[in-house]
UniProtKB/TrEMBL annotation:
Gene3D superfamilies on file: 1.10.150.450, HAD superfamily/HAD-like
Taxonomic path: Bacteria, Pseudomonadati, Pseudomonadota, Betaproteobacteria, Burkholderiales
NCBIfam families assigned: HAD-SF-IA-v3 (TIGR01509), Pyr-5-nucltdase (TIGR01993)
SUPFAM superfamilies in the cross-refs: HAD-like (SSF56784)
Record-given protein name: Pyrimidine 5'-nucleotidase
Pfam families: Hydrolase (PF00702)
Listed InterPro entries: HAD-like_sf, HAD-SF_hydro_IA, HAD_sf, Pyr-5-nucltdase
Source taxon at top rank: Bacteria
C-alpha cells in the first residue's frame, strides 16, 4: 500500500496555542474588529465584537472570512493586526520530541494551517519542525477559483488532492478542530482528532459557555482520537487498517 500523505494543522495540534498565543490573537482581533464594527468614530463594545468573532469563526471556520464577506476588510490588514506579538518565541509551548515523532511516521507531511504564512513559519522554525514538512500551505494560499477557501472548505481539500495527485484514502488529516475533520472525512480522508489543548482554547470555551467542553466521545467522522500527536505512531495501524473500509467513500 502507498505511504500516506499527512496533513497537519499547526495551532493546538503541533503546539499549545491556547497558552498565550490564542489569547493574544483574540485581543488583537477584538481591537481591530471594534474599530471596523464601530460607528461614528467610536469602537464597538466588547459584547458586539465577541459575538461577531465567534459567529464568523463558527460559520466560516475563520473569523477573517466573515470580516471579508460582511465588512470588506483586506485579508493582509486583518492578518497583520491579529498576529502582532511583542515576543512570539517566548509565547510558544510545545511537547519535546515532535521532530523524532515526525521522522517515525511514514509518508509525506504537509502543513495545512488557517494561520498566516509569516506567523506559521516563525512557529515552525522555533520548534525546529519545518524541515520535516514537504510543503507549507498557510491561509494566504487557500484560494479556489480566486475565492478564499480556508478549512473546513471541501473545495480546498479537493484542490489539494488534485495538485498532489492522490486519492482521499491516502490522506490523513491531523487536527484539533472537529468541523475540519468532518469535512475531510466526508471526502473519504482518514482523520485524527488531537484533544489535549481544546479545554483551554478561548474559542471552544466561549462557545461552550461557562461549562468546560467535553472531548471524551469520539465522533463518527473521527477515525482516531489522541490526546497528543506523540501518540500517532501507536495509532498508525488503526489508521492504515481502516483505509479500505467501505464507509470511506
Amino acid at each position: 500500500m502507498p505511504s500516506p500523505i499527512w496533513l497537519f494543522d499547526l495551532d493546538n495540534t503541533l503546539h499549545n496555542a491556547s497558552h498565550a498565543i490564542f489569547p493574544a490573537i483574540n485581543r488583537n482581533m477584538n481591537t481591530y474588529m471594534a474599530a471596523v464594527l464601530g460607528e461614528g468614530g467610536e469602537p464597538a463594545d466588547d459584547a458586539t465584537v465577541n459575538a461577531a468573532r465567534l459567529a464568523y469563526w463558527k460559520r466560516y471556520g475563520a473569523t477573517l472570512l466573515g470580516m471579508i464577506r460582511h465588512h470588506h476588510v483586506r485579508m493582509e490588514d486583518f492578518l497583520r493586526e491579529a498576529h502582532r506579538f511583542d515576543d512570539l518565541p517566548t509565547m510558544i509551548r510545545a511537547e519535546r520530541g515532535l521532530g523524532r515523532l515526525l521522522r517515525r511516521l511514514p509518508g509525506r507531511k504537509i502543513l495545512l494551517t488557517n494561520a498566516p504564512r509569516r506567523y506559521s513559519h516563525e512557529v515552525m522554525r522555533h520548534l525546529g519542525l519545518h524541515r520535516h514538512f514537504a510543503k507549507h500551505i498557510p491561509i494566504e494560499s487557500m484560494h479556489v477559483h480566486r475565492q478564499l477557501r480556508p478549512k473546513p472548505s471541501k473545495q480546498l481539500l479537493r484542490k489539494l488532492m488534485a495538485k498532489e495527485g492522490v486519492s482521499p484514502r491516502r490522506c490523513i488529516l491531523v487536527e484539533d478542530t472537529a468541523d475540519n475533520l468532518k469535512a475531510a472525512r466526508a471526502l473519504g480522508m482518514r482523520t485524527v482528532w488531537v484533544t489535549q489543548y481544546l479545554a483551554t482554547s478561548p474559542n471552544h470555551t466561549s462557545l461552550a459557555g461557562k461549562r468546560p467542553p467535553s472531548f471524551t466521545r469520539r465522533p463518527a467522522f473521527v477515525d482516531v482520537k489522541v490526546q497528543s500527536v506523540r501518540r500517532l505512531p501507536e495509532a498508525l495501524h488503526r489508521l492504515t487498517s481502516q483505509s479500505d473500509c467501505s464507509h470511506h467513500r
